[in-house]
Specification:
Length: about 475
């Protein structure tokens, strides 16, 4: 074979072996965030190759050049609709089919977010049978851990059917179904969760290990073979690979596993939100479920989980563009995985509809403690999200406690006065502080008139002793 013929043979062989590919999150059946610029990226075996990308909604081509085999381009998206195709051209052509344009949300956390209909759900047979929503799309991130940030994850997009829904996150499904029905847009749901995980595994490890408070606190989480506990393990393998993919926001259900280091949650949970937003380079909305009452240790006044709930309330109040769905009326003291996931998803969706999508005249939160006033031997409590008044279920308000300067809390008498609550006790002549539902298995019964429950809270900032 002559030199020219051999050179042509090598070129043809290389072209035959050449390849262009995208991460699994960029694939058939995906949902792209509407009215935005979304990143389409991938790899090629041809260094320096020009890649052309277009969407069939307008067929406008966007060009980029691969750098050391990696390419990325920004593709503008239209208003919600579809199905469309996305075409990627280089030395070969990729056509991504059945692509919808709509709203994309990540759902993450531990087992209560992971919980699927097949694991336990109210009215499960009817819910599965009704799950015919071809324009709701699921992407399930498999449970993997890594010491270093990964660029890709296994997985594939699939349409919502009774078969796919029953093995997908129930909370995510009911959240997405509410958005889909109320907004009349396609919805993409990315489920990335791992039962039993503490918050630290979902945060870049350097942010935990270099922090004087969080580094030692992370070591308090007991080791367990069936879950990661090393900081960054899940972030690296299950969140970082998604971080170029444009999203509308995130929903989160986690916290039970941080009872072991609950006081650090005041710092670690806001850090998780901050770190994800920095990785996406977007201040996206972050809505989360407050953990439900549960009988962890058979001790009536154990408060480790109550401190986590308080840290979640603190996070909602201190982190912009965040919101919290309270679950203290739909828990189960005997089951850490309560099965009314419909209501958890609905309450998270109310936050999104009101705060992200601007739906008017929608009550999206239960009462949240705002301020207090001391009047002789009583404390008067004011609440946000109680404009139309408060109500209770049952004959008397439960789970209110009051203390004086000695910091000893006594069970209190509480009465609703319009949109305020009046609290007192014969045992406290000069009150200074109130706590509401501030122990792990508290079952409060305070709601606003629209039926959403009040969050547990404390009016004091006293040091909490958990030893």
């Amino acid at each position: 074979m002559g030199r020219l013929a051999f050179f042509i043979f090598l070129c043809c062989t290389n072209l035959a072996l050449a390849k262009i590919w995208t991460p699994t999150i960029i694939s058939d059946n995906m949902v792209l965030q509407q009215q935005s610029t979304t990143t389409i990226w991938g790899w090629t075996t041809h260094t320096g190759e020009t890649i052309t990308i277009s969407g069939s909604w307008d067929n406008i081509e966007v060009k980029t050049k691969a750098n050391q085999g990696v390419w990325s381009a920004q593709l503008p998206t239209p208003t919600a609709g579809g199905p469309y195709t996305v075409t990627v051209k280089g030395h070969e052509e990729l056509i991504l089919s059945n692509v919808m344009i709509g709203e994309v949300w990540i759902a993450s956390g531990q087992s209560n977010m992971q919980w699927t209909p097949n694991m336990g759900l109210d009215n499960v047979k009817e819910e599965i049978a009704a799950a015919h929503y071809p324009n709701i799309r699921f992407f399930q991130v498999p449970q993997r851990k890594s010491d270093t940030p990964q660029d890709d994850t296994p997985g594939q997009w699939s349409a919502c059917t009774p078969e796919s829904m029953q093995n997908f996150s129930s909370v995510a499904y009911f959240f997405g179904r509410k958005l889909h029905n109320d907004l009349s847009v396609p919805v993409g749901l990315i489920s990335s969760n791992w039962g039993g995980t503490p918050v630290e595994v979902w945060i870049p490890d350097a942010l935990i290990e270099q922090d004087a408070d969080l580094g030692p606190a992370a070591k308090k989480v007991p080791a367990n073979q069936w879950r990661p506990e090393k900081p960054g393990d899940c972030y690296n393998a299950m969140i970082h690979p998604l971080s170029k993919f444009n999203i509308a926001g995130a929903i989160w259900y986690q916290g039970e596993s941080n009872r072991a280091n609950s006081k650090s949650y005041y710092k670690s949970f806001p850090l998780l939100i901050k770190s994800w937003r920095e990785q996406w380079n977007k201040e996206f909305p972050f809505y989360f479920a407050q953990i439900a009452p549960f009988d962890y240790d058979k001790e009536k006044k154990d408060i480790k989980a109550a401190v986590v709930r308080d840290a979640q309330l603190y996070t909602m109040k201190s982190v912009p563009n965040s919101g919290m769905a309270v679950t203290n009326d739909i828990g189960n003291l005997k089951d850490i995985h309560p099965i009314n996931k419909q209501e958890v998803g609905r309450r998270l969706a109310l936050w999104a509809l009101a705060q992200t999508y601007g739906v008017k005249d929608l009550t999206y939160s239960g009462p949240v403690y705002k301020s207090m006033e001391i009047k002789k031997n009583k404390i008067i409590l004011d609440f946000e999200h109680a404009e139309n008044g408060l109500k209770m279920e049952g004959k008397t308000l439960q789970e209110f406690y009051i203390a004086g300067e000695d910091k000893e809390f006594h069970e209190a008498r509480a009465r609703i006065k319009g949109n305020r609550v009046e609290v007192s006790s014969r045992n406290v002549k000069v009150p200074v502080a109130v706590r509401f539902a501030f122990y792990d298995k508290a079952l409060p019964n305070l709601f606003n008139q629209e039926g959403l429950p009040a969050s547990a809270f404390r009016t004091d900032d006293w040091e909490i002793d958990l030893d």
